[in-house]
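Here is one chain, start to finish.
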Amino acid sequence: MIDFQSLFYALGSLFLIIWIFVLLLFAVILWKTYTFIKKAPEEIKEKIMNMIPGHKKEVAGLIGLVLSTVVLNKIKGVFRKREEQE
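Its structure:
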């Protein structure tokens, strides 16, 4: 028959091993997440640089659209200021 002291010692050892395994697993997950986040800007930049040569017209169109929106908003702002001053 097993006494309580031996049973408690065995269960304690078992839980200690399980928690060490969980801690190591958590550390590995954190490390993988850290390296993924650290490499993300480089990978995004690389994907964008690979996409630009094949789609020059689309990129130029997007840049033109953004610039035209900014210019039109500036012009509207100038006219609104003039109307407010009068």
